[in-house]
Amino acid sequence: MFPASSIWLLIILAFATALLPFLTERAFAFVPWKQQGEPDRNGLFYFLRALLSYLVVGAGCYLLSRPAVDSLMQVIAVVLIVAGVYFPGQVMAKSLKVKTFFNRLIEVTVFFFVVAAVGFALEAYYTNPIAQGWEFWAIFACLYIVLAYPGFVYRHLLRHPKKHEHA
Asked: How many CA atoms lie within 13 A of 118 on its CB side?
């Protein structure tokens, strides 16, 4: 893969992950509170479950963003990220009917850090990583929000006639 094609891969990945929480009701991240349809448990359970999920995805992102990581560690990082993103949907598939705006916001935030980790991994593959200041993070966050905006408009601002019909 050439550097130019890897940049396009990163842009496509960012666009897809920014839209994904708005285009589906499948959960991609745990939230630290009880959602509609979940069984009643102690409030601490939901917080710890979300924290564990964030730690797994965070560990995968951290491993993937390290410059001197061997192939085995990269595979482990990808497995951690995929498991951390796939597992909540499997657990919540039967109980979650409609995600709230805050659920979608948490998912967009988790995907933001996943895309950042993939970007750092690609940068480390081609060259020595450069330390980024707050300006980089501000611009990256704004661009990611702009990429998520079409999904937000589709989910929250457009009228969906099938959902609003009264029988």
From this structure: 20
Tell me the chain's radius of gyration from C-alpha atoms.
Answer: 18
Output the pTM of the full model.
0.74
Residue 63 to residues 7, 69, 81, 110: CA-CA distances in angstroms? 20, 7, 10, 15
CA distance 131 to 146: 24
pLDDT digits (tens, 9 = 90+) for 59-98: 888 887 776 667 788 888 889 888 888 888 777 777 777 7
Question: Which of 119, 62, 60 lies closest to 86, judged by CA?
Answer: 60
Pairwise CA distance, residues 106 & 81, whole Å: 15
Write out the two tokens for 5.
Answer: 């094609």
Rounded distance between C-alpha atoms, residue 119 and residue 122, angstroms: 5
Domain spans, the chain: 3-164
